[in-house]
Amino acid sequence: MELRHLRYFVQVATDLHFARAAAHLGISQPPLSQQIRLLEDELGVVLLERTSRRVALTSAGSLFLDAARRTLAEADRAVLIARRAGNGELGELNIGFNASAPFIPQVATALYAFRQRYPDVQLSLNEVAGTAQIPAIRDGDLDLGFLRSFDSPVVPQGLTATLILRERLVVATRPDHPLATRAGLHLSDLGDQSLVVYASDRSGGFTEALFDLMRDAGVEPRVAQHVREVSTLLGLVAAGIGVTIIAESLASLQSAGLVYTPLRDDRATSAMWLVHADAPPLLTRNFLSVVGGLPAFAPAGR
Predict the structure, then answer these.
(1) DSSP secondary structure string, 193-253?
(2) What is the pLDDT at residue 300?
(3) Residues 6+ apart with CB under 8 A from 134
(4) Distance (Å, rounded) from C-alpha 196 to C-alpha 18?
(5) How far is CA 263 from the centre of its chain?
(6) pLDDT by residue (tens digit) across 175-215?
(7) What does the pLDDT look like over 32-68, one tens digit per residue?
(8) Torsion sign (Cα): 286, 164, 182, 186
(9) Helix, strand counts (H, E) of the chain
(10) What pLDDT does 134 receive?
(11) For strand 222-227 and strand 194-198, is the pairing parallel, antiparallel, or unpaired?
(12) What is the pLDDT of residue 195?
C-alpha cells in the first residue's frame, strides 16, 4: 500500500463519484477505479459499494476513511517538518555566552531577532566562561559563542572570531567612595584600592588580563575578595568591601548603591567576540545571517 492509494481512496470517498474524483486528482477514471480495486484486494475488504447510480461507503470504508485521513495528515506533517528542518527553521541552536553578554545591546538584539524570525528553533543558552567556549565550539558541543577577551581570542583552524564591539572599562564604587566624584580615572589611581574580582575559573581570563593592565600601569592589584557571580561582585562593592572594574555594558545594572566611573587609559578597554565554525551548519548560518542584517550589529572585522 502506498500513500497515493490512500489519497485516491479519500478523494473518491469525499466526492462519492469516480469521475469527479478522477478530475480532482488529475488522472483518468479507469486507472482510479483499478487502484481502488487493488486497495480493496490488498485489505481483503470492500470499502465502496458501487452501482450504476451511486457510490457509497461501506461500514469498513467509513472507518478506514477516518484512519486514512489521519495517516495522510501525519504524512503531510512529516514532509513539512523535514522541509522546515532542511531550511533551518526547526532544531536546536546551542549558544555559549559569558555573564556580561546579555547586557550588550547587540547581543540581546541578535537573540531577540532570531527568535522572532525562527520561533520554532529552540535556543539553548549556556553560560560558559570566556575561552572555555572555544573547545566546545570546536568539538560541536556549542554552535557558536559570545565571549569577552581583551585581544582577539586565539582560535584553532576551522573557527572564526569576529569582533562585535570594544567598550571602555569602568570602576564601580560606592557613592561615598573618594573616587566616586571623579569624572574619569586612570589605572594608576587604583594603587591603594582593595579589589573585588571574579575568581579565575569564572572570569574567562578577564581578571588575569586586567591585572596585567594594572601592572603595566605600575599598580600591583590588591584583592579583597574573589567572587563567582556578577550579583555578588556588585553587591560586595555596594557593601564597601572594595571597588571593582567591569565592562561598561554592565553599568546598565543601575543601583543606588553604586557609581560607575570610566577609566581613561587607552588600553582600558575590553571586547566582545562572536566565535563560530568557518563552515557552520545551517542553523548557525541562519543565526549569522540574522545578526549580519541587524543595523545595531556592527562587526569590526576578524
Answers:
(1) -EEEEE-HHHHTTHHHHHHHHHHHTT---EEEEEESSHHHHHHHHHTTS-BEEEEGGGGGS
(2) 41
(3) 145, 147, 153, 154, 155, 156, 159, 275
(4) 82
(5) 33
(6) 999 999 999 999 999 999 999 998 887 777 889 999 999 99
(7) 999 999 998 999 999 999 887 889 999 998 999 999 9
(8) positive
(9) 10, 11
(10) 93
(11) parallel
(12) 96
Instruction: Please give the Cα distance from 217 to 181 (Å, whole number).
Output: 22
Q: Which residue has the cell 495517516?
A: 71
Residue labelled with grid coordinates 485521513: 69
Which residue has cell 571597588? 243
CA separation for the pair 170, 190 (Å, rounded): 12
163: part of which helix (H) or strand (E)? strand 159-173
Measuring CA to CA, which residue among 294, 269, 247 is closest to residue 106? 294
Between these two residues, 225 and 131, which has the higher pLDDT value? 225
Residue 192's φ and ψ, nearest 5 degrees, are -110, 15
- 8 Å CB contact between 68 and 47: no
- Answer yes or no: pTM beyond 0.85: no
In three-state secondary structure terms, 4 is helix
d(CA 25, CA 34) in angstroms, rounded, equals 14
Q: Work out the number of other CB atoms within 10 angstroms of the CB of residue 288.
A: 18
Q: Are strands 121-127 and 91-97 parallel, antiparallel or unpaired?
A: parallel
